[in-house]
Amino acid sequence: MTGKRVLGIFGAAMVAALGFVGSVAAQPVVGVPREWQMNMPPSYTPIMERLASLHDLLLVIITLISLFVLALLVYAMTRFHISRNPTPSTTTHNTVLEVAWTVVPILILVVVAIPSFRLLYYSDKAVDPAFTIKVTGNQWYWTYNYPDQGDFTVESRMLPEADRLKQKPNMPRLLAVDEEMVIPKGTTVRIIGTAVGNSMHGWTVPGFGIKKTVIPGRLNEGWINVTDEGYYFGQCSQICGDLHSFMPIAVRVVSKDVFDKWVEQKKKAAGLLPATDFAAVTTQANR
Ligand SMILES: [Cu+2]
After folding, report:
1. Are 200 and 240 in contact (CB under 8 A)?
2. In angstroms, rounded to a whole number, what is the distance separating the alpha carbons of residues 137 and 197?
3. What is the whole-number distance in angstroms between the Cα of residue 252 and the centre of ligand 1?
4. Hey, which bits of the chain come out as E strands?
5. DSSP string, 221-284
């Protein structure tokens, strides 16, 4: 665990250094697959931390079961080999044994089910989210709508390779986008997902432990809360048609100040003027 974490921190530091050399991005590239990565991605959200520990628990349980079954198999193969056991037993029932091999798996399933359902409900609904982002899967790009920040929408499309090399050379190939989803760090953000057109999509960022199937005509909910600034990447995880492989998900996590500035910029670009103080206007008109 510690070794993995140290490696992760070292990797993040390396990428951060590269990012600053490239200097196109203020934030480091953090949540991205690494070469020869064998294990789960590092956890960047509380949900992913819990997912990883559930995975570790399950890994222990399935390893023990596999070893037990293997031991039984080897024992049966050697002990009851025709050379050692020429006359086979004709036993057909053993009540104690049958009850045991029914009850023991049930107990194991209960042990697995309790943390599993806990995590399912934990990840299902955001508790006291600061704001909501509506994610829409389109054919074949994502849109991110910010209803609580004046209702502007950002279109996020994969950068063609030539543009990536020119604009964002330190971003990973096939994952870099023109406009990332931007969120402030350390903030609970509710994600509401849907799709338009005639196919489903999957809004999935492995390091966040989120994988929301988004479906036309339906709203699916999830949440993220990312501690560290940086760029995080995922991909559409629901085979959705021609350009399924080319609608990556990129999230940029920034400080609250940078987020507020970004929101102002997007509101201006969308022609959303600062909110009018209607109370003051009415009072003046009545005078
Ligand atoms: Cu898709």
Report:
1. yes
2. 9
3. 20
4. 29-31, 131-138, 141-146, 152-156, 181-184, 189-195, 201-205, 210-214, 220-224, 230-236, 248-254
5. EEEE---S-EEEEEEE-S--STTGGG-EEEEEEE-HHHHHHHHHHHHHHTT-PPPP-HHHHHHH
Contact at 8 Å (CB) between 216 and 194? yes
**Closest listed residue to residue 272, CA positions, set 93, 114, 152, 165:** 152
- Looking only at the bridges linking them, the beta strands covering 201-205 and 230-236 are antiparallel
Instruction: Write the pLDDT tens digit of every residue in 145-155.
Output: 999 999 999 99
Distance 132 CA to ligand 1 centre (A): 21
What's the pLDDT tens digit per position in 74-100?
Answer: 999 999 999 999 998 888 999 999 999
- State CA 139 to chain mean position distance: 21
Question: Cα of 143 to ligand 1 centre, how many Å?
Answer: 12
Between 273 and 147, residue with greater pLDDT: 147
Residues forming beta bridges with residue 214, ordered by sequence position = 201
Q: Could you tell me the maximum CA-CA distance found in the chain, to the nearest angstrom?
A: 110
Question: Ligand 1 centroid to 38 CA: how many Å?
Answer: 25
pTM: 0.79
Give the 3-state secondary structure of residue 189. strand
Higher pLDDT residue, 278 or 46?
A: 46
Instruction: Tell me how far apart the alpha carbons of residues 48 and 53 are, in angstroms, rounded to a whole number.
Output: 9
The answer to whether 166 and 21 have CB atoms below 8 angstroms apart is no
Rounded to an integer, what distance in angstroms lies between the CA atom of residue 192 and that of residue 223?
A: 8
Q: 93 CA distance to ligand 1 centroid (A)? A: 53
Q: Is the peptide bond before 140 cis (omega within 30 degrees of 0)?
A: yes
In DSSP terms, which residues pair with 137 in a beta bridge?
142, 195
At residue 150's C-alpha, the angle toward residues 144 and 151, to 5°, is: 35
